[in-house]
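Long-time lurker, first post. I've been practising inverse folding by hand and with some scripts of my own, and I keep getting stuck on stretches where the structure tokens seem ambiguous. Below is the full token string for one chain I'm working on. Before anyone asks, I'm not after the true native sequence, just a reasonable design that respects the backbone. If someone could post their per-position residues I'd love to compare against what I wrote down in my notebook.
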């Protein structure tokens, strides 16, 4: 057993305007950081329409299709843009997450990392936002629940920004546990501890600006204790690396080693529950820190998979 890496060059076809933090170079930084690791490298397929429709209505998908420009950019909101290749990239982001779920549940690999962009955890049912177009992690969760027939899936989000989209898409589903640590105050302004989901199946832990990795690790120890009680059959990770002290978009003070420690805690819990892990790249905007932190994360996945 090993770790599968799902990628595709279409990730570089999602081109954002000059100076945008969610830039093409993020993909290169991640791929370069993982280049020498012994991973089962797989192509992220384009998602079928039916997979998108697990979380987004057809009218939303049609609106995104119609907005794709022939050249230049189409602004969807102040932060989120489409270029001519963006839809293909976004569909492969969903497709990679879906294929990753299929692979671990078939027992082909122990765990997976989906290194695609744009990210997904801010996309709501009919609203692209925060660099995100489709809810990759939420769609992957619904694939596991509705296609594979699992009873309980956990989505764990350590991106520095609250995964409002994932939360909204899974809010009413008692089969989906969602947990997030995130800086507050910070975009998008959601993620208060009082936001618990329709069935009390969600855990939000806001962290104050300047919080260090020790605070982050303590929060995740508490979250994972609650996750164990939920007893998920699959764990999906929204792996954002923008809580790093070097990141320009936030003010948490995590270091590379904190991502190692938190990933190890997640993998240890998952192993105890015999739940495979699917991890999907979200944020991280300092290229050097993104590369190092991603490598630290994937190295733990590799260790857990052997």
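-- Answer (accepted) --
I ran through it position by position. Result:
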């Amino acid at each position: 057993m090993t770790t599968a890496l799902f990628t595709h060059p279409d990730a570089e076809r999602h081109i954002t305007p000059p100076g945008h933090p969610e830039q093409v170079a993020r993909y290169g930084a991640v791929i370069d950081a993982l280049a020498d690791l012994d991973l089962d490298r797989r192509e992220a397929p384009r998602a079928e329409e039916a997979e998108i429709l697990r979380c987004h209505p057809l009218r939303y998908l049609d609106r995104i299709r119609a907005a794709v420009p022939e050249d230049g950019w189409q602004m969807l909101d102040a932060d989120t843009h489409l270029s001519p290749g963006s839809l293909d990239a976004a569909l492969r982001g969903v497709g990679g997450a879906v294929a990753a779920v299929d692979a671990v549940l078939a027992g082909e690999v122990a765990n997976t990392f989906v290194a695609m962009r744009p990210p997904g955890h801010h996309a709501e049912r009919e609203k692209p936002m925060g660099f995100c177009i489709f809810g990759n992690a939420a769609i992957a969760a619904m694939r596991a629940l509705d296609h594979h027939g699992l009873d309980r899936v956990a989505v764990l989000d350590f991106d520095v920004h609250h995964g409002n989209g994932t939360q909204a898409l899974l809010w009413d589903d008692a089969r989906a546990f969602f947990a997030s640590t995130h800086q507050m105050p910070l975009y998008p302004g959601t993620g208060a501890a009082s936001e618990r989901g329709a069935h009390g199946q969600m855990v939000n832990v806001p962290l104050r600006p300047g919080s260090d990795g020790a605070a982050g690790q303590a929060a995740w120890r508490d979250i994972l204790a609650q996750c164990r009680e939920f007893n998920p059959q699959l764990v999906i990770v929204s792996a954002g690396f923008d809580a790093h002290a070097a990141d320009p978009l936030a003010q948490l003070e995590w270091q590379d080693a904190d991502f190692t420690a938190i990933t190890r805690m997640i993998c240890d819990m998952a192993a105890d529950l015999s739940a495979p892990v699917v991890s999907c790249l979200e944020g991280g905007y300092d290229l050097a820190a993104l590369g190092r932190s991603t490598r630290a994360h994937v190295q733990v996945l590799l260790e857990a998979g052997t």
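A couple of notes from the structure itself: DSSP finds nine helices and ten strands in the chain. The two ends are 6 Å apart (CA to CA). Happy to go over any region you disagree with.
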